[in-house]
Amino acid sequence: MSPLEALVALNLLPKIGPVRVRRLLDIFGSASAILEAPLDRLLRVDGVGEETAGILRSWRDHADPSSEIAEAKERGIRLVTQDDADYPAPLRDIYDRPLLLYVWGELAPRDRHAISVVGSRRATTYGTHTAKKFSYQLAQAGFTIISGLARGIDTAAHEAAVAANGRTIAVIGSGLAKLYPPENFGLAEKIAAGNGAVVSEFPLHAAPDKQTFPMRNRIVAGWARALLVVECPAWSGSLITANLATEYGKPVFAVPGQVDKPTSAGCHQLIREGATLAADPSHILDDLGELPFERPTASAGPAATPESLPELPEDEAAVYAAVSADELPVDRIIERSGLPAHVVTATLMKLEMRRLVRVFPGFRYARR
User: Fold this and answer.
1) Which residues lie below 8 Å from residue 284, measured CB to CB, with a gap of 6+?
2) How far apart (Å, rounded) are the C-alpha atoms in residues 299 and 354?
3) What is the pLDDT of residue 292?
4) Model-level pTM?
């Protein structure tokens, strides 16, 4: 059995987990040695009871690593272990680091400069817009955007990073053959096709459940240089992710909302407890500093003058024409442009990045 097959076998076993496997690896030295260890030696390991030892001794009844590896290869999925150079460096430093990662797409050295963006699955219009604005500008600044591919804030963060021609990593709480939620499969394809990677620590056909999502969240928290919580209620799982980030020594940023909105209560709680208030992407960039590599090509330049105004694509020209020197609400701009709402909101973000329009409270826009 190869070292990779042994690791995959361990990862396929039920009721083991990365912390217990790490303890076993410290004692036995390799995955193969764990699977070959006699029962009495396994039982002498702290935290390994009869049930766990029995599973390890009968591992062939639970795992077929050769088939798992072959199917991953057929699907274009790489298996990345801690011995591989492209295993994410920040994850090596967390005590419960994943044993291995299933990677659909490509990891890059620049992904160590990442910001995780999380928030409510039931995002409001405010939350969605804010997540897109922050993620777009952070991706433009060269940061990789990490999120969980869930509905709501996660989806908005990934979409904005792709729109910015930046990089994004989607860490999911299921196997890659059971991608969840299924309606985001198209977005996952875009990410894997050239904008980053979709990543899971779970076997290919693992279904999502109440345990897999908290496990996913520790990767989201541990991989990034910082965590941004955009919008969440007081009972949100995003608060758990924020607590994990704090445990790992990562700075946590939170976006404030209206004080009477339950949808922002979790962010306000984080700010009260010491998270840094982020009202604009520049607040995060100021704290984290400049990145030592080339940014995406569409980064914002100085404000355009009428003489230097570039020729705009059709949609951008139509939206820009609909914006006036006076503040206009988004609904009015949509009406004047004649374009669908989702096109207008995405295009306004691009125009804001080009410094052609300015956004005001209440999602009102005016030309610069």
Assistant:
1) 115, 134, 138, 226, 228, 253, 278
2) 8
3) 54
4) 0.79
CB atoms within 10 A of CB 296: 14
Contact 118, 154 (CB under 8 A): yes
Q: What average pLDDT score do residues 355-359 get?
A: 82
Is domain 314-367 given the CATH code 1.10.10.10 in the classification? yes
Nearest one of 162, 164, 191, 163 to 172, comparing CA atoms: 191
Tokens describing residue 66: 């050769």
What CATH architecture does domain 105-288 belong to?
3-Layer(aba) Sandwich (3.40)
**Residue 300: how many CB atoms within 10 A of its CB?**
15
H-helix segments, 123-256: 125-140, 153-163, 185-190, 212-223, 238-247
Are 148 and 174 within 8 A, CB to CB? no
Helix, strand or coil for residue 5?
Answer: helix
CATH class of 1-65: mainly alpha
SS3 of 286, please?
helix
Condensed to tens digits (0 to 9), the pLDDT of residues 43-75 reads 988 888 899 999 999 999 999 999 999 999 999
